[in-house]
Write a structure and sequence with these properties.
It contains nine helices and four strands. It is an alpha+beta fold and 219 residues long. The termini are far apart. A hairpin with a 2-residue loop joins strand 3 and strand 4. Helices cover 51% and strands 8% of the residues. Helix 1 (16-27) runs parallel beside helix 3 (71-81) and helix 4 (92-109) runs antiparallel to helix 6 (127-149). It has helices at residues 16-27, 47-52, 71-81, 92-109, 115-124, 127-149, 164-178, 187-198, 200-204, and strands at 7-11, 33-36, 60-63, 66-69. The longest helix is centred in the middle third of the chain and has 23 residues, at 127-149.
């Protein structure tokens, strides 16, 4: 695999986008240095971090002199540079399905319950409407994902190997539970979560297992 000690991941423990990259790194067996960015303290807006990512959000991956933001782009970069444990299958149909699932999560679900968006909604309306907003968009996306995967899922989303779709699904399902989404409406996705719960690569990437996660008594 070459020298991977230079890999650094700027992450926040509860960030779904950072969570995706942690899973990808774990699946590929890549060691990395965890660099915490506390979003609640607005550390992403510091001048130092803005030099890494002018968009001022996590995750950011640093690989030597290469700096990459955005979980989708990072995942594709890792796939190209570190081909061990492929995240995308060779079969074009299954490959497209993986990309579609990642796109639905990354473009049509998670951005609507991003911390900055929810803070804006709460400021304009109230906390109750903020939760309703998040639940509406999460349910819309999960309904589409359930229909896409219900007849094709294997042990994992698109077969018997964890791939890009799973990297995006696992954090999104966890976020759905945090917003009290009724996962019994999505039996395929609920079943996939059981697979993720048994996979060491997914378990090591869980928010509560990160070095910047607060102690259980502080959550």
């Amino acid at each position: 695999m070459g020298d991977t000690a230079k890999l650094q991941l700027y992450s926040y423990w509860r960030s779904s986008s950072s969570h995706r990259v942690r899973i990808a790194l774990n699946l590929k067996g890549l060691a990395y240095e965890y660099k915490s960015v506390n979003l609640l303290k607005n550390e992403q807006s510091s001048p130092e971090f803005a030099k890494l990512n002018p968009q001022k959000c996590v995750p950011v991956l640093v690989d030597g002199d290469t700096v990459i933001a955005d979980s989708f782009v990072i995942s594709l970069y890792l796939e190209d540079k570190y081909p061990e444990h492929p995240l995308l299958p060779r079969d074009l149909k299954t490959r497209a399905l993986n990309l579609q699932v990642a796109s639905i999560v990354g473009s049509s679900i998670q951005p609507f319950h991003n911390l900055s968006v929810l803070n804006y909604i709460e400021g304009k309306l109230n906390a109750k409407e903020k939760v309703a907003w998040a639940q509406y968009h999460i349910n819309n996306g999960l309904e589409a994902l359930e229909k896409l995967l219900e007849k094709v899922a294997g042990y994992y989303a698109t077969g018997d190997e964890a791939q890009l779709a799973d990297i995006f699904l696992a954090p999104q399902i966890l976020a759905a539970e945090r917003f009290e989404i009724d996962m019994s409406r999505y039996p395929t996705l609920a079943w996939l979560k059981e697979a993720y719960d048994e996979d060491p690569a997914f378990q090591a990437a869980l928010p509560t297992n990160q070095p910047d996660a607060p102690s259980p008594s502080a959550v």
